[in-house]
């Protein structure tokens, strides 16, 4: 068949597939990038062109795009037991092993794990668990969920309500009872002359006020990413968790760490809560949990919530919730191998988290160097997640007008140069796979720098 335009992969992609989170003018002008596979940190398109994927797919492909040990584990698992569920008192042996492993690598001395197919479903599940157990324990009014503006927790109805992004208003969300606190981003939210310590104290005071206004007895949980990811890579202000956690504890509000991005090494420790020195009541995991090779999420309950949920479930004879593919044996086998590969080292290789430690100083130095540009307002990040925020005026932190789509243009210029990075608001986000070499990191920053120069020359 002749490869005319109407029969191109780009046209076929546009004809019958709906896009998620896609800038449609960009696609209309440039076409879809249709990919066939990858090698190391690179993905390859239908024309044979390679792109260095500085976003690890969607934060998840931390072992790159052809990890031999993980692929072998998946193949072996499919040959052995290609599918099963975790309902009605049955589950696969791999599911049993993965739960033991997750508790062993968690900050919890004991606990229980519930499996989903995604991070969104894991957050929905967590909220249903809290609603269920509070009701069973005679506190049915304890249902509200506190999150932060710019926090990202997913797209299902409840997890979108938790997400603190204005775009959810197109769905008439959030639902009632989902309360968003100020984003603890000192550079953007700090007031003129306010020190970072004073800013953090103001965040804590706001939390106290919100709890007083809403009523502590109506609030089930505070759910937070240790470092906000999809909100634009926003680490908390200095001392933030130390300031807010005692307030939440005092009011009996459960503390949930959404580790879907931070989890399994991204910030330099197994979990972002370890990087920030706190132990939550539960952890939400997904993305790197299977190094991106299988759709899976997990709610990891610490001992107290696990016991309470167990007791509440016994009282009604079951916890009426679960997904058909929860605890899938192939997904669990891949996750076991991913955890081993990332945290312990598999097949004689050092753990991938060593790569995070090795790369972080150069990654931070590269971001800091690009942030010297007069149109970069700040660089921020933790471990191997970072962002550069474009501004029209550095001194006043004034953003570029939205209609210029500066971050989309930067990302498009990067794509033209064979580099995938993500525009988020006015920021450009980098979160490369943990297997990156120093030479590939130089390639990443070199291509990004040229893209920044091109776009700033056009818009400034
Ligand atoms: C991606 C993400 C989610 C949602 O996960 P999906 O698998 O896309 O549903 C939830 N929380 C955080 C922090 C995320 O980054």
Helix content: 40-55%
Oligomer: single chain
CATH first level of the largest domain: which class?
Alpha Beta
Radius of gyration: 22 Å
Any idea how many domains? 2
CATH architecture of the largest domain: 3-Layer(aba) Sandwich
Number of strands: 15
What does this protein look like?
Belongs to the class-III pyridoxal-phosphate-dependent aminotransferase family. One of its GO terms (molecular function) is adenosylmethionine-8-amino-7-oxononanoate transaminase activity. InterPro entries: Aminotrans_3, Aminotrans_3_PPA_site, PyrdxlP-dep_Trfase, PyrdxlP-dep_Trfase_major, PyrdxlP-dep_Trfase_small. The chain is α/β, with parallel strands linked by helices. The chain has 2 domains: 33-62 and 352-459, Alpha-Beta Complex (Aspartate Aminotransferase, domain 1); 70-344, 3-Layer(aba) Sandwich (Aspartate Aminotransferase, domain 2), CATH 3.40.640.10. It is 41% helix and 15% strand. A 7-stranded mixed sheet has the order 4-10-9-8-7-5-6, sandwiched between helices. α4 runs antiparallel to α13 (329-344), α5 runs parallel beside α13 and α15 (406-416) crosses α16 (438-459). It starts with 8 loop residues before the first helix and ends with a helix. The mean pLDDT is 96. The structure holds pyridoxal-5'-phosphate (PLP). Residues 118-120, 123, 152-154, 225, 229-230, 258, 260-261, 286-287 line the site of pyridoxal-5'-phosphate. The site of pyridoxal-5'-phosphate has 15 residues, from α6.
């Amino acid at each position: 068949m002749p490869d005319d335009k109407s029969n191109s992969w780009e046209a076929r992609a546009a004809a019958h597939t709906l896009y998620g989170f896609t800038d449609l003018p960009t696609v209309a002008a440039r076409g879809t990038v249709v990919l066939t596979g990858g090698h190391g940190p690179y993905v390859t398109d239908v024309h044979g062109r390679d792109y260095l994927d500085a976003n690890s797919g969607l934060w998840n492909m931390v072992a790159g795009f052809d990890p031999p040990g993980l692929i072998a584990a998946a193949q072996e698992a499919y040959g052995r037991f290609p599918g099963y569920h975790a309902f009605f008192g049955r589950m696969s042996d791999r599911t049993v092993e993965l739960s033991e492993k997750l508790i062993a690598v968690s900050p919890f001395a004991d606990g229980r794990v519930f499996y989903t197919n995604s991070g969104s479903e894991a957050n929905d599940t967590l909220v249903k668990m809290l609603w269920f157990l509070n009701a069973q324990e005679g506190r049915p009014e304890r249902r509200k969920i506190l999150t932060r503006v710019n926090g990202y927790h997913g797209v299902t109805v409840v997890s979108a309500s938790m997400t603190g992004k204005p775009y959810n208003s197109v769905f008439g969300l959030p639902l009632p009872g989902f309360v968003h606190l100020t984003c603890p981003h000192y550079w953007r939210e700090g007031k003129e002359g306010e020190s970072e310590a004073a800013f953090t104290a103001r965040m804590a005071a706001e939390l106290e006020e919100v709890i007083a206004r809403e009523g502590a007895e109506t609030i089930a949980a505070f759910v937070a990413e240790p470092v906000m990811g999809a909100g634009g890579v926003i680490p908390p202000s200095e001392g933030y968790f130390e300031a807010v956690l005692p307030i939440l504890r005092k009011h009996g509000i459960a503390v949930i760490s959404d580790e879907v991005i931070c989890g399994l090494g991204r910030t330099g420790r197994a979990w972002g809560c370890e990087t920030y020195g706190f132990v939550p009541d539960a952890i939400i995991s997904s993305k790197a949990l299977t190094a991106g090779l299988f759709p899976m999420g997990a709610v990891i309950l610490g001992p107290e919530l696990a016991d309470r949920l167990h007791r509440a479930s016994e009282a009604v004879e079951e916890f009426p919730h679960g997904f058909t593919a929860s605890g899938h044996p192939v997904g669990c086998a891949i996750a076991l191998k991913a955890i081993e590969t990332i945290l312990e080292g598999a097949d004689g290789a050092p753990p991938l988290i060593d790569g995070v430690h090795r790369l972080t100083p150069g990654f931070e130095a590269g971001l800091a160097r690009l942030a010297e540009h007069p149109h970069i307002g700040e660089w921020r990040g933790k471990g191997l997640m970072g962002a550069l925020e474009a501004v029209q005026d550095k001194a006043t932190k004034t953003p570029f007008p939205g209609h210029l789509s500066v971050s989309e243009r930067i990302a498009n210029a990067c794509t033209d140069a064979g580099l995938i990075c993500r525009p988020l608001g006015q920021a450009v986000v980098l979160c490369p796979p943990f297997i990156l070499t120093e030479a590939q990191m130089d390639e990443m920053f070199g291509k990004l720098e040229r893209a920044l120069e091109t776009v700033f020359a056009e818009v400034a």
